[in-house]
Amino acid sequence: QVHLVESGGGLVQAGGSLRLSCAASGRTFSSRAMGWFRQATGKEREFVATIRQSGGNTVYADSVKGRFTVSRDNAKNTVYLQMNSLKPEDTAVYYCAAAVYYSDTYFSPSNYDYWGQGTQVTVSS
Asked: Longest C-alpha distance within the chain, in Å?
């Protein structure tokens, strides 16, 4: 089992920045691909970004390309999501997720085995 705990959410103004952290505990964290998803009120959960064990081969949703950066530090068992140039439409609950294997279905929540509790990000205009 893997336990994920997210932190770093909060309220920011449009154009500002925020960094989310996802701390993992449990077995074989370094063997897992990690993903970030978000869910706005009244909408379905959507893919944001994913990163492989090595830290390479990152993929981003079109809506966040050029603004968000995902990274990981396996020595610290932590994954990060740096969010810059935030927009009101980025407002959502952000979830960290872990998959045993990286696959071409990284965009689907069903591909992931473990989930964090979510952290609220609110961007004011």
From this structure: 42
Q: Considering Cα of 119, then 65, then 108, then 79, what sign does the dihedral take?
A: negative
The pLDDT of residue 82 is: 98
Task: Read off φ and ψ for residue 48, nearest 5 degrees.
Answer: -115, -55
Q: Which two three-digit tokens encode residue 122?
A: 């609110």
Long-range own/partner contacts, residues 21-26 (CB < 8 A, 24 or more apart): 21/78, 21/79, 21/80, 22/78, 22/79, 22/80, 22/81, 22/96, 22/116, 23/76, 23/77, 23/78, 24/77, 24/78, 24/79, 24/98, 25/77, 26/1, 26/2
Residue 106 to residue 35: CA distance in whole angstroms = 8
Asked whether the beta carbons of 23 and 117 are under 8 A apart, the reply is no
Exposure letters 1-32 (e unless 16+ CB within 10 A, then b): ebebebebbeebeeeeebebbbbbeeeebeeb
The pLDDT tens digits of the residues spanning 54-91 come to 777 899 999 999 999 999 888 888 999 999 999 999 99
Polymer length of the chain: 125
